[in-house]
Amino acid sequence: MSDSQQAREHWSSNLGFILAAAGSAVGLGNIWKFPYITGQNGGGAFVLVYLACIAVIGLPVMLCELAMGRRTQKNPVGAFKKLTPASSTLAHLIGGLVVLTGFCLLPFQQYGWGVMMVLLGGAIFRYSWVVVGAMGVLAGFTILSFYSVVAGWTIGYIWKAVTGQLNFSTVEVAASHFGHFITNPGWAIGCHAIFMLLCMVIVYKGVQSGIEYWSKILMPVLFLLLVALIIRGVTLPGAMAGVEFYLKPDFSKINTNSVLQALGHAFFTLSLGMGAITTYGSYVDRKQNLFLASLSIAGLDTLIALMAGLAIFPAVFAQGFQPNAGPGLVFQVLPTVFNQIPLGSLWAAIFFFLLLVAALTSGISLLEVITAYFIDEKQWSRARATIVFGIVIFLLGCLSAVSVAGWENIEWLHRLLVAVFGSVKGSFFDVMDNLSSNWMLPLGGLFISLFVGWIWGTKNAMAEIRHGSANFADVHLFSLLAGLKDDQAYNAEFHVLTLASLWGVFIRFISPFAVLIAFFYTVGWLKLS
Ligand code: TRP
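# tryptophan complex -> structure
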């Protein structure tokens, strides 16, 4: 059973790795969320802000995760274990502070939070940075459990499209249909089960013949379907109004909130902050250029997100619907739009299939983090890890699936949560989403950059990144941009502004600071205009 001592399986090619990592990044976040937040936040202007966030935070943190994974050849917990020094004052300090805060909460009768913080602080004190890796594995459970529920809805909607049930005359009818669908436990749980099963089958097959093999098939399929939908959308009469709404920059709509929304989304969409990219990085060969890889992954992710908006808004405008439906856009407005155009059921089926493909390549990356942890650290076999934790996540997800109908079905869970935390906002689904997207991922990202910047050290990390990208990392940035990177005359020994030095500055100062501000703002500890 102990296969961890044998040679670790690696991606068979650079392309396979990039498609798998891009597959992890491209998901519901790109096709469902990015278009509607862009639509709400000033179109092209928001895209610019978002690109800046990808550059300032996304790329530097992605490089950290890839470097940690490739250096250690381990899952996130194993990676932190290997790189954490025997004693870290910073970790002791943070652990101590968290314990203290926990104790301070007790007199205010915040027992749940208090006890949790004391335990967490104690864990940080004892295990120091390894706790960040553990939080990543835990985030894998939380995210996949509700992600799979939404992915399940897309399976239901493919079936409905194929059988011609998406024939809504108005958005109101579509909305009520959607409401009935997601609150029907049979459908919700059934579709969630199918999605988890698909993830399990692929992850069970392993890195090369599971994840890489399927990413190489599914990513081109995704691209082609998206192109087909864009062509269909923009050739409808009146479609240009949609393109204009989506991409015409409106700087008056940009405010602090949109900047922070872009920042938070940058993490989720690039699969950062919980070790998914660390895990994928552990299967990367030393010959590969990590700089170019992270640029390609982020580039593909952004490209697909932008394309998704072009597939959606022109069609919405052409048929005279409102673009600002927010989260309901995809499941309520779009089916109604498709219902009005020739071969509508076919287009709807194509769209929901696209959404499923995107979700699947992301789902497998989440399950792989947990699987890799149990293979590396607990010497489980891959088969046992995927089956056991696929089922555990399925069960956890069932709670999310039935919770959207209200707490009535799971009153015991509600009472438990209220008893521990005092109050609960939204459904269990919302709790899981909020916990992972607003807490675990930003904190994970923050601590990953602090760890690489100050504890493992940019010097050690850069030594790893240089394998495969030396003359890329250390050439003067202007020479690189000018295409003169191999021209010695321009590169001398003076390493002034190189990609390596730029990355170091970002990861030590700029990225952690930006994430911290965004985190304080989202959890309400900081109020900005
Ligand atoms: N990036 C995916 C999306 O945009 C979701 C995802 C997959 C993810 N793996 C992740 C998010 C790891 C955070 C962490 O839909």
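# post-check
Residues 428-466 form the longest helix (39 residues).
The CA atoms of residues 31 and 308 lie 5 Å apart.
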